[in-house]
Amino acid sequence: LKGSQETLGMQHPDTLTSMYNLAGLLQARGALTEAEHIFRTVLRGREEVLGAADPRTIRSAVSLASLLEQKSEEGAVQADSYLRGYHSLE
Fold it and tell me: Nearest to residue 39, comparing CAs of 53, 21, 52?
């Protein structure tokens, strides 16, 4: 990941994919706060680089929403908000 960030840059789609994969691994291991931070970074980057309608951006929003639901009830409200925004793109 560090090499990708240095070589391609933080906003490159391949770097964002590596970060997305890392966030998923962290979520699976229970490191929810760290995973949330990375998922949010990836989502912002993909929105800027790929646009909100790109399937990878939508997948990022769904993954963040899933993590927020996993964390708490308050997170479930945030998750619903994210998903409503992306549902309107269909």
Answer: 21
* Per-residue model confidence as pLDDT tens digits over 15-26: 999 999 999 999
Cα–Cα distance, 11 to 44 (Å, whole number): 9
DSSP code, position 54:
S
Question: Is the separation of the CB atoms in 53 and 90 below 8 Å?
Answer: no
Encode pLDDT of 55-66 as tens digits: 999 999 999 989
Q: Is 63 within 8 Å of 46 (Cβ atoms)?
A: no
Identify which of 18, 23, 15, 17 has the alpha carbon closest to the alpha carbon of residue 63.
23
Closest listed residue to residue 34, CA positions, set 18, 43, 45, 23: 23
